[in-house]
Amino acid sequence: MTGLPMRPELNPGEAWSDAFLAKLDALPDAERAPWPALAAFARSASAGKPSAKWLKEAQKHLDAVGAGNFRAVLAVSLPLLSRPRTFALQPAQYGPDPNLVLDNFNALSLKGLLWMVPLVADSALTRLLPGVVESALKKVPGVGPREPKVANAAVYALGQIDSEVALSALARLSTTVTFKGTLKEVQKALEVVSKRLNISPDELLDMGVPTLGMQTVGERVEVLGDAEARLSVDADGAKLTFSKGGKVLKSVPAAVKKDFADDLKELKVAQKEAEQAASALAQRLDSLMIQPREWRGESWLERYLNHPLAGTVARRLIWLVDGVPAFWADGDLRDLNGEPVAVQPESVIKLWHPIGRTVEEVLAWRDRLEELQVRQPFKQAWREVCVLTDAERRTNTYSNRFAGHILKQHQFNQLAALRGWRNKLRLMVDDSYPPAMRDLPAYGLRAEYWIEGIGEDYGTDTTESGTYLRVTTDQVRFYPIDAPENHAHAGGGGYSMWVNQTQQPVNPLVLADIPPLVLSEILRDVDLFVGVASVGNDPTWQDGGPGGRFREYWHSYSFGELNETAKTRAEYLKRLIPRLNIKDRLELDGKFLRVRGDVRAYKIHLGSSNILMEPNDQYLCIVPDRSSPGGKNDGPDVNFDGDRVLSLVLSKAFLLADDTGITDPVILQQLKR
Fold first, then answer.
1. If pLDDT is split at 50, 70 and 90, which confidence band does 630 have?
2. Where does residue 258 fall: left (phi above 0), alpha (psi -120 to 50 degrees), or beta otherwise?
3. What is the pTM assigned to this prediction?
4. Residue 106, SS3 per DSSP
């Protein structure tokens, strides 16, 4: 043992590196000996992706340490990547906190280790890679994503692994990753896989939904000794239950924990993956509501309607089968009248969208879903529809419908990325920025939402690193997708089109010429940005924010006219209120939900969820619990997926209807004022 390197050169102090080193220390000397050379070679991963020569050399090192040992060491260390440092570093006076980022030396080692994963990967190791991506992309103040090169290396590995687990992970990451650099790597990896399988990227994503061993749509049953384990997936998520002799048990039987530990672990992994995969599929189908996507009947039945996991989402949506609207009910696809709708192998299947449908049909589908007590995976029957207004016909080439708002920039930027928009955070610098943009290649169009940074006080109107905290909004426009981009100074001054010597300025397109579906979905996106990111939604801003500069805007938004989402929210509440156990204390009144308490009466604005107390419209500030925005309302399931404001309106209504039970001293002080 004399002279034998005891461990590779990895810096301790990070949970993952400590676990890595501890696992090596537990190995016999002979098995530990090749590891320093492997770790040193891993740190040569300086390129964007490994070369064939690099991979050939990596294989030699893997052969030396053994594939099983390599998998075992990474299996204990990778899950700890998101954990805090095991001993803290002293932050410098300026700059980011070093405790929140990865050690540079270790990060380079990890990048190389991830490049090696495809050479020895099994399903268990592959399942750890999406977690590496998510941990490495976690935002750090003053830095951005924690360590993109590690995230990109994990994505590369997934693209090289030929398995259902890897494909499922890539499909999920394609809907959840918002950091542009890594999202581009995800798309590249999907292209690699699609070429390998000789299918289109769209078909690849259709195939990327795992079955997870489920025998029928939404259900997997395993017999473990004298107990039965059941994994079920529905609108409420994935549940794992156990029964014995037909009786459902409250917990996992001791015999299962003892004799079937590996089976139990695999079932729990499948449960988590089912939740993630179903959520990612719902997000992807929601994004396809703007696309002219079609499926052939045979493949759609296999990959959607009758797929063990995808079917749990597809069977809660309305589809067009050869132009006939249909929904899954009573064991079959049926039309509005309950008659079966046949799907032929060559039938053309599309997602149903309320745009262009009659009001009567839309209302009928809402009634039908309510009758069936179906909670859709995203807004479809209740989807907001934005049609061209007379004002927009007069402005002709731009919409001012969502101009003049003050948005929290970071929240807006995150929402924009989730909805497929390109945007750059504005800094208080002498620089120019393009507007927020969404490319629509299927239509040859580009949508723009003009925004500018607002404020002049560094540190008050910006973060410590100089990023504007707020932006002000202007026009929505459409251009050909290849038109030169507009730019505006970071601090405002108006947009102008930048062209070079080979380009000519391009006029914005006439709104009336934009396909109604595209116009509606783009304006719906912008409605979402304003409805969620506006400072008018913040109940603590009644004084108008810094220096009271935004007081007028806050009041006009907090209690002003309803946007499209809020109008739809009001329509939904009309149906929901009769089903609530406080229905006798509630009344819809235009922009407000009126609540009758025992101490006072209240008006909750349906757009902002802010509250006025009667009889003198005194403002009541209730700050929601960010960890549980909906609160407990003891009412029926809300069929309004993703509408946080509706959850706030309901939770506040239940709280105020029982105002004699309020114990929060801040709220009580306001009630007695």
1. very low
2. alpha
3. 0.86
4. helix
